[in-house]
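// run 5 | inverse folding | seed 20
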């Protein structure tokens, strides 16, 4: 894949995802001054793919046809990522729903999008037990080989030149490393894999041919089985270029054991390795601990790929929670992707950027997501005319954070829509004169959150491990009417300081802690 030339210059490549989203939302027009700012920022921030490319890898995302009309979504898809994989539209049930009737219209939309955005395409997938039309399973076993060969030949031929790598066979193994039963295995035994690979090579000699599976990211019975299979195939001279590791991870199951060593043993056979379907799900609701674990898993996957020369790149299984397959496939789980449902980057996004060598907003050597907010209520009554949050920030990272880059939001409801507020810093060991505070009305009011108290700093810095110490804050409405704090998003009743995920911290404008309302 690394030898494939992509045509790079496109209109939006290099623009930060959020700004593109903003441009889309405002109808795509920007004043000359805004354009200048956009260009400055574009120069300042590389895309995920550009960061990966500087390390000789690609960074891609799955996508699906129904998502593409979402302009804000497709703007980010087209700019931040250098490779795309169709989530569904090249699968057998779409491309040959009836025997001999091929339909590549949906897949063509994906390859067309890629061509317009200078992206490569991983074709997914030619032979798989799932999303397989019923007619294949109903064939007499003696007819399955011919049907499979025809399917592989027709599809790989159609996408010659447009698809750079194929998941020729998807998910051939059971968890214990035995071959999964499928119409193909039943008809041909393990030979179906070699037959499919040979047919794919004959149809498109230029495409890289992969076997792809999940739970083969770490060392274990299933990856041992894949390792044994690919060794045999290579010994037999079967065309095979790489192994795809899906990497559908979950914070509750732990990080794959020895992922880097596992990748390396495949690489040592002369194969490429790709992370093909990365996401990191969690049991909902998300909290700060799960979110931090998720960021660390994303980071470790990127680090493993960077450490193995033959790891050619990474693909996330769509980049946003808005279009994740997780909630429907794993009920009760979600929040698995790099961007949230509003297409805003999450801490995992920052972790990936940092792992790819990108500069982050915490400054040189820093890492966003390394500040945490702690909170206690200094208020004995949740129904009086003042709100009295006590906040402190702790630097949990390894680099000093400049406090003037930091903003904190405490979300509450105004009750009567009062527009004027007074805000106060009553006491802090860092000195209230360095603390700024104001109330801002939410653009889009959310449950328990139509206003926020924004806290900032005029100067100062926070060394690794250091805390600001408590900042005693207070606010009231100009008309001194009462609040009902009990339903306020950021309100808590604890009277000693504790990590507070509903207080959101931004460093350099990017979210570094907490969950937005
Ligand atoms: C998923 C798609 O994302 C869903 O939209 C679809 O309903 C089911 O398949 N492993 C794979 C992918 O190889 O093809 C799967 O994609 C996710 C798991």
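// decoded
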């Amino acid at each position: 894949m690394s030898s494939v030339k992509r045509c790079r210059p496109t209109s939006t490549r290099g623009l930060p995802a959020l700004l593109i989203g903003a441009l889309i939302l405002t109808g795509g027009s920007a004043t000359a001054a805004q354009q200048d700012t956009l260009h400055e920022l574009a120069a300042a921030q590389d895309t995920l793919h550009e960061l990966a490319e500087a390390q000789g890898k690609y960074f891609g995302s799955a996508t699906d046809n129904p998502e593409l009309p979402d302009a804000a979504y497709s703007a980010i898809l087209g700019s931040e990522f250098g490779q795309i994989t169709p989530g569904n539209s090249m699968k057998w049930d779409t491309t040959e729903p009836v025997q001999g009737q091929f339909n590549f219209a949906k897949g063509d939309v994906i390859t067309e999008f890629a061509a317009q955005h200078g992206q490569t395409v991983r074709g997914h997938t030619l032979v798989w037990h799932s999303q397989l039309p019923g007619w294949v399973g109903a064939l007499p076993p003696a007819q399955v080989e011919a049907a499979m060969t025809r399917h592989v030949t027709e599809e790989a031929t159609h996408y010659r030149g447009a698809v750079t790598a194929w998941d020729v066979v998807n998910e051939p193994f059971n968890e214990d490393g035995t071959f999964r039963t499928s119409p193909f295995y039943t008809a041909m035994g393990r030979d179906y894999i070699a037959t499919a690979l040979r047919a794919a090579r004959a149809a498109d000699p230029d495409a890289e041919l992969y076997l792809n599976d999940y739970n083969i990211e770490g060392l274990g019975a299933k990856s041992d089985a894949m390792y044994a299979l690919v060794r045999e195939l290579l010994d037999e001279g079967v065309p095979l270029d790489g192994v795809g590791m899906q990497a559908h991870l979950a914070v509750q199951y732990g990080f794959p054991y020895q992922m880097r060593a596992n990748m390396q043993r495949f690489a040592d056979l002369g194969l490429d390795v790709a992370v093909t379907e990365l996401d990191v799900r969690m049991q909902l609701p998300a909290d700060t601990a799960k979110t931090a674990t998720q960021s660390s898993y994303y980071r470790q996957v990127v680090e493993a790929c960077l450490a193995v020369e033959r790891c050619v790149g990474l693909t996330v299984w769509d980049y946003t929670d808005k279009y994740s397959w997780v909630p429907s496939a794993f009920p009760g789980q979600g929040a698995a992707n790099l961007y949230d449902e509003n297409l805003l980057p999450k801490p995992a996004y920052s972790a990936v950027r940092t792992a790819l060598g990108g500069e982050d907003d915490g400054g040189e050597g820093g890492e966003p997501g390394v500040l945490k907010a702690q909170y206690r209520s200094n208020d004995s009554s949740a129904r009086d005319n003042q709100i009295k949050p006590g906040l402190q920030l702790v630097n949990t990272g390894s680099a000093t954070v400049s406090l003037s880059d930091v903003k904190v939001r405490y979300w509450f409801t105004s009750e009567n829509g009062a527009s004027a507020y007074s805000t106060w810093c009553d006491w802090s060991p860092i000195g209230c004169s360095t603390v700024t505070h104001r109330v801002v009305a939410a653009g889009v009011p959310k449950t328990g959150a139509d206003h926020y108290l924004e806290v900032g700093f005029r100067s100062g810095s926070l060394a690794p491990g250091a805390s600001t110490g408590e900042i005693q804050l207070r606010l009231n409405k100009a008309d001194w009417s009462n609040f009902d704090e009990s339903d306020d998003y950021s309100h808590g009743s604890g009277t000693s300081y504790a990590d507070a995920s509903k207080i959101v911290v931004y460093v350099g404008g990017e979210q570094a802690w907490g969950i937005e309302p």
